[in-house]
Amino acid sequence: MEGQRKGSFNVMEGSEANGKRWCGSVVRTCDLVLRLLAFLLTLVAAVVIGADKQTAVVPIKLVESMPPLYVPVAAKWHYLSAFVYFVGANAMACTYATLSLLLSLGKRRKWMETVITVLDTLMVALLFSSNGAAIAVGLLGLQGNSHVHWNKVCNMFGKFCDQVAASLFISLLGSITFLLLLLLPQLFRLKQTT
Amino acid sequence: MEGQRKGSFNVMEGSEANGKRWCGSVVRTCDLVLRLLAFLLTLVAAVVIGADKQTAVVPIKLVESMPPLYVPVAAKWHYLSAFVYFVGANAMACTYATLSLLLSLGKRRKWMETVITVLDTLMVALLFSSNGAAIAVGLLGLQGNSHVHWNKVCNMFGKFCDQVAASLFISLLGSITFLLLLLLPQLFRLKQTT
Fold first, then answer.
1. What pTM does this model have?
2. Where are the domains of chain B?
């Protein structure tokens, strides 16, 4: 009787240990895939906006009674500080994603995992704040604001704005990837407790 | 000899268990204090910008050759979508901080802790993105941007801008508090492994 009970305990413990090991390996694989994805997305986002430049011929009125002068005007990402912060944040996140991916490929010690989780959290804060800043300024460029007399500029620099929008979308995906890196172990823990 | 060894093991295990229990209670106390702080900071940030309003008499030129007309113009937070998002995000974070504080005061189950950590992470993303958006637009109001011909407005609405800056600073502290809520268990884990 005693032996039977011990035997059934061992089978249950064994299957529980197997389940935990399986969960651990799934989390580890997802972690590596997400880091690779985060690296690619933040890299592409920084490159797409970094290479963004457009020159358009814009009518400028010097005197009200005279016809406007047509002057070539260039639009560059570094004219707006929100975009500079956006590029810097994506470049930092991209560098960090590379380093953390390389570290994750090797044997991960407990303190190293903790340091990586802390840095992942800081990257989420950095990326989301830079996305918020760039999207806010991008929307002003697209729609303008009549209350503060800020005219929209995207009607003159359509290609430039399209490229900014693409970069913002890609970076948002990169930020969500970093968010998933934080949420993944929590979601698996939730699955285990239910 | 055997009894002595067992005794010393028991003493070590006991002190380790005591240390873990002490660490756990410190983390729990810090968690409650941080949640209370997050509630207060996000509440004050939302109220300070929500109550922000200023009317200034601004010169407006209708015809170049005529003297300007002096017109009273109002500045309100909901004129800019970035500030609307900022107030919404702070209000949501404030409500969540209250609910999570009440839940944390009771007995915390494992699944509940996981859900709270997931929601804390989402709050960090939400608050940092809203801070980024509001700071970017606030800086444009303060400095303007000559490249896109967006004039600064803070020279005319000084009190309004000061109140926005105060709210942004308080909300930034609130966001850092939510960030600390995520980092706190990690930092204690790091202390335990070193």
1. 0.87
2. 2-193
